[in-house]
Amino acid sequence: MISKIKVQDMGHVDYKSSWDFQKEYHKKVLLGIEPDTLFFVEHEPVYTLGKNADPNHLLQSADKDVKVFNIERGGDITFHGPGQIVGYPILDLNRYKKNISWYMRTLEQILIRTLATYDIVAEIKEGLTGVWVGEEKIGAQGVRISRWVTMHGFALNVNTKLSYFDGIIPCGIFEHGVTSMEKILGEKQNLISIKDRIAQLFNEAFKIKG
To answer: Is residue 193 within 8 Å of residue 121, measured between CB atoms?
Structure first.
């Protein structure tokens, strides 16, 4: 028997509320009282800095109305906002593979395969996390893993307003830009359809045997 990972679309959720929710749900998965779940959310405009982020990567030119959060995930600074699909998988990796690199690469491949559905050729870059189209980043990742249970996750720029990235050095990478599905395809995309495709590929990649 192969069990499916639960998928829940939480819709528009403010960042602080979703962060608090993740931490509580993480505890419940650790205790075995909640199932592994992939949560989809869409946030108000926020900048988040991982535990190793350089605060100088938040530029003086950044929009002062955008809230800033220092959080416990890995990685540098990134942006979340409307039109972006954010995925928070809270999974017990004891059920799959206890390997952080494998987990990160699997998340990247899910986004790469999702984009391929829309005839967008994406790839990974050696030495860098995330998903790239040419020299521009379209998908970012930052996770925290405690006792092999994951939280935080990935973000895919779909109809994202890219000008918000002008206020930061995204992920601390100076020499590359950012892009979105809307920019590449020339029109706004259906977020629900893309989430459905991610969920399908997620369940293909993470199979609980029991």
So the answer is: no
Residue 63 has pLDDT above 60, yes or no: yes
Confidence category of residue 74, pLDDT binned at 50, 70, 90: confident
pLDDT at position 174 is: 62
Instruction: Spell out a b/e string for 63-72, using b for 16 or more CB atoms within 10 Å of the CB, else e.
Output: eeebeeeebe
In the predicted structure, residue 1 carries a pLDDT above the cut 50: no
What's the structural domain count of the chain? 1
CATH number of the domain to which 90 belongs = 3.30.930.10
Contact 160, 50 (CB under 8 A): no
Contact 33, 13 (CB under 8 A): no
pLDDT of amino acid 4: 81
What is the distance between the terminal CA atoms of the chain, rounded to a whole angstrom? 6
| Tokens representing residue 133 in the block | 């189209």
Domain hosting 19: range is 2-209
Residues making up the chain, counted from first to last: 210
Q: What is the pTM of this model?
A: 0.95
How many other C-beta atoms are found inside a 10 Å radius of the C-beta of residue 186?
Answer: 7
Strand segments, DSSP code E, in 36-175 are 37-42, 46-49, 67-70, 77-80, 84-90, 131-133, 136-146, 149-157
Catalytic residue IDs: 171
